[in-house]
Amino acid sequence: MPNTEMSLNSMPTVKQLIPKLESGAKTVTKLPHGGFLFLEHDVPSLLIYRKKENDSGTDRLIRAGASYLVVGTASFQYYKTFIEDLTTLMSNNFGSFILLEIFTGSTGSEKFKVRGPSHKLPVSLQVLKDELLKIKSRQYNVNLDVCVEQTKMRQIVSEKPLLEISHIKQRGATLIGLEVPPVFRDDQGHMYPLYFRDFQEQFIKAIQRAVFEFIRVQTTSNLTNYHALGKRSIHEEVFKIDKQLTEIENSYQFLLLVAPVNIQALRQQFFDSHFKKLDRYHYRLLPVDPDILKRKLYNLRIDEIDDPALSFLFDEKRAEIDQELTMLKERDTKNFFYSSIRLYNGLDKALITEAELILQNIPENHEEGQRAVIDTSEFGDLAKQEFDYFKEQDPHFNSKIHIRDDVNIMMVSKGELYLPSDYTMSKNDAKALIQHEIGTHALTYYNGTQQPLTQMASGLANYDALQEGIAVLSEYLSGGLSGNRLRILAGRVVAGAALINGAEFHEMFFKLYSQYDFTKERAFNITSRMFQGGGFLKDIIYLEGLVRLRNFLKKGGELVPLLSGKFALHHIDLIQDLRDRGLVLPPKITPRYLNNEDFNLKIDKLKKGLPISKMI
């Protein structure tokens, strides 16, 4: 007995570990017998799990929460006292405190059992029930159900209570027991990894929403939404995986590698032969082995990330990189085209209709090319002025301009501008393209590099459509979006539809040149881009992104937060979650057009439903 007492006395107490609660601080520490505490000081809630053998997955459910306690396998009295002292500390600071003990039910059970004071917390427990019922189940041949039990026994019947109800009341706290059906593993205890990922994400969201209702009403906490109850501190292993994903993607330049290096010669041949001859596309040698990169890609332990938001984003990005690496192996084959359809999610009829209306309602201005033009060198000078504007906002901004003979399109890659050596444009087009390439692509790349996650610079999966939507919108907001420019975007969609329907190069060219009255130069440019790699649908996303962005703004969305990095519109909720947890920061630099006198007027027009064809 004396040895036991000495052992207990030598174990760390709450007072020793947390002498004072500090806003924004956290306590992360190992505890005796395999226990562990992760406590955000400004979060008045705690998830509790008693460590057990042969209970795979249950401990990972709580690790997605902001604050959690894993109770060790021995020294029950120590943990009982520890929890009581922690409850007293948190209740005194916030006026109240909520604890949820999580444990699994028997094998074969498909019912959540919520044990708590339902008569005192009707809203919180109803929210918990409703959210738990939203967990995907039927498509996995699982029929989840939820029951709420008003009982003083919050733990498993065979276990001793960690907190007595009378002690909880004295401390102004609340304890809820939540029995979880172990549907995420088989009868032998082996996990179903894909289902577990979905289950965990929706489970923790249900907990967060219910707990937030309690915190909002019962405590003095200033937390503003349930996202703040998610994991804020990210394990360094997660940041390591983030960097490894970025390193793999940065080891190749996808757009450069699928772009032909002989496009100028092909254009000259095509025009000199009166649109009859066209040699094969030639491509750069691959600087990487796609198979080796794929091996590295799938060695990343993304499945072990317990933060649902980051797990989803990383898994989605891995799938996209995998698809791009496959396409690099498939260059100049029909399979490249099929993979392109998958990568850019095909082409819907509504977008084709939008494109055809633009082409019908906006005539081609054939005199535009006869106006005063500027060359690549002059455009490079304008780009440098824009880079200097960014440098005024942040002295650390740095980017370069590359003028090259082996580039067929103007583009930004890794924040740097690449220009074809023979490129010319009107001054109005130059104004638009500066904001498109520099004011959007270079800007969001730099803002992404200032984020905790490197993926915000290289781009989360499917970020392209929103990026191009913002880029085209910037042309409108800077006063440089012309009718011909909008026709080009529409022409790309029509060309994409023709490609999907099996059109050959000459057929697509003449469709654009004769039927839609594009100049031969523009018709060739649209067509040649559509056939690079073996059939490349990327160009459809410019108009698609603009339409989606306009609809987003119409629903009350804001533009500036979209400039903090490279992500997709379907990531908005996840980005908000990460922003609330301090994992996404506001944009470091902003584009010039935000200061234009007519900026708010133009945005208001869009929010009121301005047709795309009226944006010129």
Q: Can you walk me through this structure?
A:
The structure is a single chain. The chain is an alpha/beta fold and 616 residues long. It is built from 24 helices and 13 strands. A hairpin with a 2-residue loop joins strand 11 (411-413) and strand 12. Helix 12 (308-329) packs antiparallel against helix 13 (334-343). The longest helix is centred in the middle third of the chain and has 26 residues, at 193-218.
Put the structure in a nutshell:
This protein has 616 residues and is of the alpha/beta class.
| Strand fraction | 5-15%
* Number of E-type strands: 13
Helix content: 40-55%
Lateral arrangement of strands in the main beta sheet: 1-2-4-3-5-8-6-7
SS-based class = alpha/beta
The coarse overall form would be: elongated
Largest sheet: 8 strands, mixed
Fold blueprint:
Layout (H helix, E strand, L loop, with lengths): L1 H9 L3 H4 L8 E6 L3 E6 L4 E6 L7 H5 L5 E4 L4 H19 L2 E8 L6 E6 L5 H11 L12 E6 L14 H6 L2 E8 L12 H26 L17 H15 L3 H5 L4 H10 L17 H10 L8 H22 L4 H10 L5 H13 L11 E3 H18 L7 E4 L6 E3 L2 E5 L3 E3 H23 L5 H4 L5 H14 L5 H18 L4 H11 L4 H12 L9 H14 L17 H9 L18 H9 L9
Parallel strand pairs: 3-4, 3-5, 5-8, 6-7, 10-12
Antiparallel strand pairs: 1-2, 2-4, 6-8, 9-13, 11-12
